[in-house]
Amino acid sequence: xxxxxxxVVITAAGRDFGRTLALRFASRGAEVHLSARTLxxxxxxxxxIRAQGHDADRVHAYACxxxxxxxxxxxxxxxxxxxxxxxxxxxNGSRYQHGTDLLSASDEDVVDxxxxxxxxxxxxxxxxxxxxxxxxxxxxxxxxxGCGETGHHRSDAHDAxxxxxxxxxxxxEILSRRLRDRGVRVISLxxxxxxxxxxxxxAWEAAPRTAKDPLTAQSLVDCxxxxxxxxxxxxxxxxxxxxx
Length: 244
Known about the structure:
By secondary structure, the protein is an alpha/beta fold. The chain has seven helices and seven strands, in the order βαβαβαβαβαβααβ.
């Protein structure tokens, strides 16, 4: 599946799985618009993509703090200045907070965790929806987490992270219903902890992917590509995964 005609926006693409998504979308030929909290982090990934031979005019870096509404608006406006539509928005941004004790995180940690994951997802989707509605094949992909599933309790993530992911789950659920008639597919992924191998390393192809192994970033990316590659009458609302 090639993505040469897709224009893709990825939040929090400066490291970890966001970087993986940016590299893999670009490897399929997509035009990528990637953000990170600092411009320097986004530019590092942009330069990595260009070093792989990707057309410099088809990969763009932006600063975006998902906890700041003005920053989200500026990000969307900067993308709109370069393109008339967006085909895929990937809501990847969400701060992780560790700790099973509610008292282990400061007030600031709680606010930032909720703001980046919950508020940031709503703000980014709202800001890019006008560009998505101009696409002939608009998709919104949100990386939720197993922590967003009702009754999930196996993670050592902080309660605030659980709250942020539950908010994302509720938002994407209602959004899927309300945007269907407008042709926008809303796809959510609920992975447990997974192995995120560097796409530019030998480990990417060599990673074990048997039934006894943890979920890999490779499989998550494959799920995203599978969902957005389906005919437009196929609305895959969510991916849920068994946890090893």
